[in-house]
Amino acid sequence: MTRLTRADLEAARDRLVPDVVADGLSVLFCGINPGLMTAATGHHFARPGNRFWPVLHLSGFTPRLLRPSEQDELLSYGLGITNVVARATARADELSAEEYREGGRLLAEKVERLRPGWLAVVGVTAYRAAFDDRKALIGPQERTIGSSRVWVLPNPSGLNAHWTTATMAEEFGRLRAAATRPR
User: Fold this and answer.
1) Cβ atoms < 10 Å from Cβ of 3
2) For 31, what's the count of Cα atoms within 13 Å in the CB-facing half-sphere?
3) Least packed by Cβ within 10 Å: which of 52, 61, 107, 183?
4) How far apart are CA 158 and CA 49, in angstroms?
5) In this predicted model, what pLDDT tens digit does every residue of 6-36 receive, in sequence order?
6) Smallest Cα–Cα separation from 104: which of 121, 81, 87?
7) Separation between Cα atoms, residue 53 and residue 44, nearest integer Å
8) Whether 33 is catalytic
């Protein structure tokens, strides 16, 4: 991959990144919003310190460690990626409460249309803001969106020091086990 400059990253601000989705996925993973590296490359969870791809593999969702540039292979495993808020920012704290609420509304519409078995939101704070559920914790939620169940996962950002790669993989693995059970 070509090394991106600070100017390249800044030029990606507010850019939209296409979802990796299809109807009837087993799990639709939902990030907070694209970071600048993701927007600059067009590949979800592209920042080198982000643990999404290693955790996805360690938890058994993928048979090998995928690179962000291989994101379209997720569809062959019944997996997809979207975001709560579509626009790219350097940090999630650049998003307003209104953007989260509107993102939650649009995400619910998308989930109702695509009907994944599970919506997996990576980041409890983003989930709480998007769905006005201040008491939500990591794990399966009581909320459903249409026929889709909801699971909140830890944020795989390298900034999330509360969770190690191993403990994150355990939680992702709990979702994988639930997703492989019949509906």
Assistant:
1) 5
2) 28
3) 183
4) 5
5) 898 988 898 899 999 999 999 999 999 999 9
6) 121
7) 10
8) yes
Q: Respond yes or no: is residue 44 known to be catalytic.
A: yes
Amino acid at 70: E
Q: Out of 44, 50, 83, 155, which one is annotated catalytic?
A: 44
pLDDT tens digits, residue range 68-126?
999 999 999 999 999 999 999 998 899 999 999 999 999 999 999 999 999 999 999 99
Q: Token pair of 7, please?
A: 């100017």
**Dist CA 144 CA 10 (whole Å):** 37
Residue owning tokens 């940090």: 91
Active-site option among 33, 50, 83, 155: 33
Q: Which domains does the chain have, with CATH numbers?
A: 6-180 (3.40.470.10)
88 in Cβ contact with 33 (< 8 Å): yes
Give me the helix-helix angle, 97-114 and 124-131, nearest 10°: 90
Q: Are 37 and 47 in contact (CB under 8 A)?
A: yes
Helix/strand/coil for 113:
helix
Angle among Cα 33, 183, 152 to the nearest 5 degrees reads: 30
Q: What is the three-state SS of 61-89?
A: CCCCCCCHHHHHHHHHHCEEEEECCCECC
